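During the no-cost extension, the postdoctoral fellow (Dr. R.K.) reprocessed legacy sequence entries with the updated structure-token encoder. One reprocessed record is reproduced below for audit purposes.
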Amino acid sequence: MAGKIFINYRREDSIAIAGRLHDRLAETFGRDNLFMDVDNIPVGINFEEYLKSQVAACDAVLSVIGPNWLNAKDEGDQRRLDKPDDFVAIEIAAALARDILVIPVLVDGTRMPKAGELPASLKPLALRNAIQVRNTNFGSDAEQLITKMREALALGRPERTQELVLLWFNTHLVAAFLINISVFLAALSIVFQQSDNYAGALAAMVAAAPISLVGGRTLARDESVRMLGLVVSVGGLLAVAAIIVSPQFFRVGLLESRTIQSGSLMMGIYFLISVQVFGLWKKMVTYTWMPKATEMTMIMANSRWLAGFTFLSSMLFVVATWEILYRLTDSVAAALALVCVHLLVVGYCYFRFRQALAAANPAPASR
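Re-encoded structure tokens follow.
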């Protein structure tokens, strides 16, 4: 059974990273086991005693420390940590006094405060072993934090729920597809630049930027990218639709190839899948109206071989990009290079998917 975790942070210092940590920890430990933002303190209640009681109900406290945590000041230019009514200080002091596990989480290279810089009630915090969490490497840092918390709390690993398995499976596949599309657009930008088509090069790079961003954040299972992902996927779907009809309306010779047309249709299907994933996120993974489909998807996701084959098969949805690049460059080497990069992307996304399952200690995978 997972322990209860209290996330302590200062809003003006680290609200963004604290929110991301909350969402990531919720995937593993469950939202009901997380405490954050004790705002609704009943009227007439001693808020210090109330905060202490909330902390006392937890097995661990994460103290999120950003660059302004130590020296944050109020309107009167007094350091907040030194004030008797500072929520952050009260919560940490309560945990330290009860010998509750306190883990300092240092954001983006923030140094650990020294004992001499802390109020008397917080000085023991300086002796607690800290862990770094960086925005640029959030996925792996959060996984490391979760591993350390399990070790410290001697927790059994949580069961892998069907909803999370299907969510991870879908998001990693979508991430592989989107990153591969951004790689293709980057290659197009290089080709256009070499042919002095600077407008085309700029357009390709502008299109690649949000797609690569969404792909990367999706790979980290960051739900905050959901709306941008939905916009990008709808835009990609519309772009593919324009490609499919372009021979009829624009007479673009490049796109008269039946291979490119059928490949573009497959890309459109995957953009549609991406729209579903971002549009519904966790709600779509429970196919109560299609129990057999859910069962088959779970079998694929839990098997390293079937999952690997599924990830490899996802390359078929970007096959049109290889011929497009070949026709633009008349270079087999360029097309093969793109295939190799796509293969590396798919392999990396599959590796990250297996890591996510291993972190949750899944049931033994079928062979």
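The first helix runs from residue 11 to 29. The two ends are 29 Å apart (CA to CA). The remaining legacy entries will be reprocessed before the final report is submitted.
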